Amino acid sequence: MLQRTTTRRRAIHIDPSLTYPIGYTRRMGAHLLERVRHEAGLSQEEFAARAGTSRTTISAYEHGRKSPTLATASRLLATAGFELTAEARVSFTEVPVRHGRPTFVADRLWRLALEEAFAEVTLPLGLNWSTPGAVFDLADRRRRARCYEIVLREGAPADLLRFVDGALLVDAWADLVLPRELRAAWQPVIDTVLP
Protein backbone atom coordinates (compact mmCIF):
# COMPACT_ATOMS: atom_id res chain seq x y z
CA MET A 1 0.00 0.00 0.00
CA LEU A 2 1.20 3.53 -0.67
CA GLN A 3 0.69 6.48 1.57
CA ARG A 4 1.43 10.11 0.92
CA THR A 5 4.14 11.45 3.24
CA THR A 6 2.34 14.53 4.51
CA THR A 7 0.16 14.99 7.55
CA ARG A 8 -2.76 13.84 5.41
CA ARG A 9 -1.85 10.26 4.50
CA ARG A 10 -3.65 8.74 1.55
CA ALA A 11 -3.70 5.18 0.34
CA ILE A 12 -3.44 4.17 -3.29
CA HIS A 13 -5.20 0.87 -3.85
CA ILE A 14 -4.00 -1.56 -6.48
CA ASP A 15 -6.58 -3.57 -8.43
CA PRO A 16 -6.17 -7.13 -7.07
CA SER A 17 -6.79 -8.56 -10.56
CA LEU A 18 -3.42 -7.10 -11.62
CA THR A 19 -1.44 -9.07 -9.03
CA TYR A 20 0.03 -12.54 -8.76
CA PRO A 21 -0.51 -14.46 -5.50
CA ILE A 22 2.70 -12.96 -4.13
CA GLY A 23 1.36 -9.51 -4.89
CA TYR A 24 3.60 -8.26 -7.72
CA THR A 25 3.28 -8.12 -11.48
CA ARG A 26 5.12 -6.31 -14.22
CA ARG A 27 2.12 -4.03 -14.88
CA MET A 28 1.59 -3.35 -11.17
CA GLY A 29 4.74 -1.23 -11.00
CA ALA A 30 3.65 0.64 -14.11
CA HIS A 31 0.16 1.21 -12.80
CA LEU A 32 1.47 2.27 -9.41
CA LEU A 33 3.98 4.80 -10.69
CA GLU A 34 1.52 6.34 -13.11
CA ARG A 35 -1.18 6.69 -10.42
CA VAL A 36 1.28 8.23 -7.97
CA ARG A 37 2.53 10.69 -10.57
CA HIS A 38 -1.04 11.72 -11.45
CA GLU A 39 -1.98 11.97 -7.77
CA ALA A 40 0.99 14.28 -7.22
CA GLY A 41 -0.10 16.39 -10.22
CA LEU A 42 3.18 15.89 -12.06
CA SER A 43 3.88 15.49 -15.76
CA GLN A 44 6.39 12.84 -16.79
CA GLU A 45 8.92 15.61 -17.41
CA GLU A 46 8.42 17.16 -13.96
CA PHE A 47 8.51 13.76 -12.27
CA ALA A 48 11.71 12.78 -14.11
CA ALA A 49 13.40 16.09 -13.28
CA ARG A 50 12.59 15.76 -9.56
CA ALA A 51 13.72 12.12 -9.52
CA GLY A 52 16.97 12.82 -11.39
CA THR A 53 16.16 10.55 -14.31
CA SER A 54 14.91 10.94 -17.86
CA ARG A 55 11.36 11.27 -19.11
CA THR A 56 11.91 8.25 -21.36
CA THR A 57 12.81 6.12 -18.33
CA ILE A 58 9.63 7.23 -16.52
CA SER A 59 7.64 6.45 -19.66
CA ALA A 60 9.25 3.01 -19.93
CA TYR A 61 8.34 2.26 -16.29
CA GLU A 62 4.77 3.47 -16.74
CA HIS A 63 4.24 1.42 -19.91
CA GLY A 64 5.78 -1.74 -18.46
CA ARG A 65 8.72 -1.79 -20.87
CA LYS A 66 11.12 -1.57 -17.90
CA SER A 67 10.68 -2.58 -14.27
CA PRO A 68 12.33 -0.50 -11.55
CA THR A 69 14.09 -2.22 -8.67
CA LEU A 70 12.40 -1.95 -5.30
CA ALA A 71 14.95 0.69 -4.25
CA THR A 72 14.32 2.71 -7.42
CA ALA A 73 10.55 2.43 -7.05
CA SER A 74 10.82 3.57 -3.44
CA ARG A 75 12.97 6.58 -4.48
CA LEU A 76 10.50 7.50 -7.26
CA LEU A 77 7.57 7.27 -4.86
CA ALA A 78 9.36 9.45 -2.30
CA THR A 79 9.97 12.02 -5.06
CA ALA A 80 6.19 12.27 -5.54
CA GLY A 81 5.54 12.46 -1.77
CA PHE A 82 4.60 8.80 -1.19
CA GLU A 83 6.13 5.90 0.66
CA LEU A 84 5.99 2.20 0.00
CA THR A 85 4.64 0.18 2.91
CA ALA A 86 3.66 -3.43 3.49
CA GLU A 87 0.52 -4.44 5.32
CA ALA A 88 -0.56 -7.85 6.50
CA ARG A 89 -3.04 -9.50 4.15
CA VAL A 90 -6.54 -9.97 5.53
CA SER A 91 -7.98 -13.45 5.07
CA PHE A 92 -11.54 -14.61 5.68
CA THR A 93 -13.17 -17.75 7.00
CA GLU A 94 -16.67 -18.74 5.91
CA VAL A 95 -18.77 -19.43 9.00
CA PRO A 96 -22.09 -21.26 8.56
CA VAL A 97 -25.09 -19.89 10.45
CA ARG A 98 -28.38 -21.61 11.24
CA HIS A 99 -30.56 -19.29 9.16
CA GLY A 100 -29.60 -17.50 5.97
CA ARG A 101 -26.37 -17.29 4.07
CA PRO A 102 -23.04 -18.02 5.73
CA THR A 103 -21.04 -15.12 7.10
CA PHE A 104 -17.41 -14.30 6.44
CA VAL A 105 -15.11 -13.42 9.33
CA ALA A 106 -11.72 -11.75 8.93
CA ASP A 107 -8.59 -12.87 10.74
CA ARG A 108 -7.65 -9.23 11.47
CA LEU A 109 -9.05 -5.72 11.14
CA TRP A 110 -8.10 -3.42 8.28
CA ARG A 111 -8.26 0.29 7.54
CA LEU A 112 -9.83 2.17 4.67
CA ALA A 113 -8.50 5.41 3.26
CA LEU A 114 -10.23 8.33 5.01
CA GLU A 115 -12.17 9.38 1.92
CA GLU A 116 -13.51 5.82 1.61
CA ALA A 117 -14.23 5.39 5.33
CA PHE A 118 -16.38 8.55 5.39
CA ALA A 119 -17.82 8.46 1.87
CA GLU A 120 -21.46 8.35 0.81
CA VAL A 121 -22.10 4.86 -0.56
CA THR A 122 -24.91 2.97 -2.22
CA LEU A 123 -24.62 -0.72 -1.49
CA PRO A 124 -25.08 -3.17 -4.37
CA LEU A 125 -28.50 -4.81 -4.66
CA GLY A 126 -27.06 -8.16 -3.54
CA LEU A 127 -26.23 -6.59 -0.18
CA ASN A 128 -29.03 -4.11 0.37
CA TRP A 129 -31.95 -5.92 -1.24
CA SER A 130 -34.49 -4.61 1.27
CA THR A 131 -33.96 -0.90 0.48
CA PRO A 132 -32.29 -0.79 -2.95
CA GLY A 133 -30.67 2.50 -3.86
CA ALA A 134 -30.42 3.73 -0.26
CA VAL A 135 -27.46 6.04 0.28
CA PHE A 136 -25.40 5.60 3.44
CA ASP A 137 -23.40 8.59 4.61
CA LEU A 138 -20.49 6.89 6.36
CA ALA A 139 -19.54 10.20 8.00
CA ASP A 140 -22.77 9.91 10.02
CA ARG A 141 -22.13 7.42 12.84
CA ARG A 142 -25.73 6.14 12.90
CA ARG A 143 -25.92 5.63 9.11
CA ARG A 144 -22.47 4.01 9.13
CA ALA A 145 -23.69 1.55 11.79
CA ARG A 146 -26.71 0.60 9.62
CA CYS A 147 -24.43 0.10 6.62
CA TYR A 148 -22.02 -2.05 8.64
CA GLU A 149 -24.89 -4.20 9.92
CA ILE A 150 -25.97 -4.94 6.34
CA VAL A 151 -22.48 -5.61 5.04
CA LEU A 152 -21.57 -7.85 7.98
CA ARG A 153 -24.77 -9.89 7.52
CA GLU A 154 -24.88 -10.06 3.72
CA GLY A 155 -21.39 -9.31 2.45
CA ALA A 156 -18.64 -11.37 0.89
CA PRO A 157 -14.98 -10.62 1.72
CA ALA A 158 -14.65 -8.06 -1.11
CA ASP A 159 -17.71 -6.19 0.23
CA LEU A 160 -16.32 -6.13 3.76
CA LEU A 161 -12.96 -4.80 2.57
CA ARG A 162 -14.69 -2.17 0.42
CA PHE A 163 -17.23 -0.75 2.88
CA VAL A 164 -16.09 -1.50 6.46
CA ASP A 165 -13.22 0.20 8.29
CA GLY A 166 -11.77 -1.88 11.14
CA ALA A 167 -11.29 0.94 13.66
CA LEU A 168 -14.76 2.35 12.97
CA LEU A 169 -16.21 -1.16 13.28
CA VAL A 170 -14.69 -1.49 16.77
CA ASP A 171 -16.04 1.95 17.67
CA ALA A 172 -19.58 1.00 16.60
CA TRP A 173 -19.46 -2.65 17.75
CA ALA A 174 -21.52 -2.29 20.94
CA ASP A 175 -24.27 -0.43 19.07
CA LEU A 176 -24.61 -2.78 16.10
CA VAL A 177 -27.75 -4.90 15.86
CA LEU A 178 -26.45 -8.27 14.69
CA PRO A 179 -27.59 -11.88 14.89
CA ARG A 180 -26.09 -13.68 17.91
CA GLU A 181 -24.13 -16.13 15.76
CA LEU A 182 -22.59 -13.38 13.66
CA ARG A 183 -21.62 -11.35 16.72
CA ALA A 184 -20.06 -14.43 18.34
CA ALA A 185 -18.07 -15.21 15.19
CA TRP A 186 -16.63 -11.67 14.97
CA GLN A 187 -16.12 -11.08 18.72
CA PRO A 188 -12.62 -12.65 18.92
CA VAL A 189 -11.43 -10.34 16.13
CA ILE A 190 -12.89 -7.30 17.91
CA ASP A 191 -11.37 -8.45 21.22
CA THR A 192 -7.85 -8.41 19.76
CA VAL A 193 -7.89 -4.60 19.77
CA LEU A 194 -9.93 -3.91 22.91
CA PRO A 195 -8.25 -3.58 26.32
Summarize the structure.
This protein is 43% helix and 11% strand. It has helices at 26-39, 44-51, 55-62, 70-79, 114-117, 141-154, 157-163, 166-172, 180-191, and strands at 2-4, 11-12, 82-84, 92-95, 103-106, 120-122, 135-137. The strands form 3 sheets. It has a 3-stranded antiparallel beta sheet. Strands 4-5 form a two-stranded antiparallel ribbon.
Structure description:
There is one protein chain. The protein is of the alpha+beta class and 195 residues long. The protein folds into two domains: 2-84, Orthogonal Bundle (434 Repressor (Amino-terminal Domain)); 92-191, no CATH class. 43% of the residues lie in helices and 11% in strands. The strands form three sheets. A three-stranded antiparallel beta sheet has the order 2-1-3. A two-stranded antiparallel ribbon has the order 4-5. Strands 6-7 form a two-stranded antiparallel ribbon. Helix 1 packs across helix 3 (55-62). It is elongated and about 60 Å long.
**Class inferred from helices and paired strands:** alpha+beta
Task: Report the order of strands and helices.
Answer: EEHHHHEEEHEEHHHH
Q: What's the shape?
A: elongated
The number of strands is 7
List low-confidence stretches: 3-25
* Biggest sheet character: 3 strands, antiparallel
Overall residue-averaged pLDDT value:
86
End-to-end Cα distance, whole Å, is 28 Å
Number of domain modules: 2
Oligomer: single chain
- How many DSSP H or I helices? 9
Helix content: 40-55%
Beta-strand level of the residues, as a percent range?
5-15%
Strand order, main sheet: write it out: 2-1-3
From the alpha-carbon coordinates, what is the Rg to the nearest angstrom?
Answer: 20 Å
